Amino acid sequence: xxxxxxxxxxxxxxxxxxxxxxxxxxxxxxxxxxxxxxxxxxxxxxxxxxxxxxxxxxxxxxxxxxxxxxxxxxxxxxxxxxxxxxxxxxxxxxxxxxxxxxxxxxxxxxxxxxxxxxxxxxxxxxxxxxxxxxxxxxxxxxxxxxxxxxxxxxxxxxxxxxxxxxxxxxxxxxxxxxxxxxxxxxxxxxxxxxxxxxxx
Length: 200
Hints:
Blueprint: H1 35-48, E1 53-56, E2 61-70, E3 73-81, E4 89-93, E5 96-105, E6 110-112, H2 118-129, E7 133-140, E8 145-150, H3 151-162, E9 168-170, H4 171-177, E10 179-180, H5 192-199
Parallel strand pairs: 5-7
Antiparallel strand pairs: 1-4, 2-3, 4-5, 6-9, 7-8, 8-10
């Protein structure tokens, strides 16, 4: 039986152009997402709902060369970091100063400590001494897992490396001292729930 639409055209089912055509699998889960984007979306949610004020710090750079192809546009040709950056994010939550670093890895069995730098550890130690809430967020991209680790738990792994020990934190070690942040819709990565658990 032929089915006709109101416009008079006959229904034609889609048929593959060729039997040899490759089938494409399209995944829409976490499309285009990165840890930074997930955290920025989360922080925007916190801000618009009056829960916390947390922002990504801009990287301090000094621009030394600019190309002006036309008056309406400019292109930076050369720039240098002014000073070593500290941590990625900071802000305020319920009267407490928040400071944290966020890193991701494609490794599945361990997280390389080379992703951190000594000046970042020094900065986090200083914030901790002043009574701030300091932590690291680590994402295993391939596993689709994100973890919240208080700085007090992260610091011993860094010291172990300085003392000549392993230069990474194994996935199993991390699971014992960190809380997994489940993915959600809004907010995307609700790390405030874990802050409440540890600090309030």
